[in-house]
Model the fold of this input.
Amino acid sequence: MLEFDKAIRCKNHATINLLNLKGQTYFYILTTENKMETQEIMAAYQKGFLGAVNDNVVAIAFDYDEGNLFTYVYLKTIPTDEDFEIVDIAVTETIAHLPKITYEKIYLEKKCQGFRMREHQGWFFMRYSKSSLWLS
Done:
């Protein structure tokens, strides 16, 4: 089991856990608006995206609304067909663990600037980079 180096509590009731692995810092962000559903979704994303997050992935976020799951994958480069295929497989695996989901949509885009914490309901993954600040 992974232990986080530091946990930060935000004003928007999100908890940001910082984990340092092999010199890179990773964010694991859990929102608490609807804690039970959010935890179920986060656990499903962990299973679905296991091994699917490569160096090109900057962040993965989601929005959930009554059976609808929207996945947002932000990349360092313009998305390729291979990126779409990898994410599609990972989201399919994620949804297999969420029987309440009746509709899903995937968005992939290149992201060159910071994120706002309230931009999405939950953040599954966010990469830290010293050369650019992704949180704003």
About this structure: Confidence is low (pLDDT under 50) at residues 8-13, 132-136. Strands lie at 6-9, 14-21, 24-31, 57-65, 68-75, 103-110, 122-127. Helices lie at 35-48, 81-96. The CA atoms of residues 80 and 108 lie 9 Å apart.
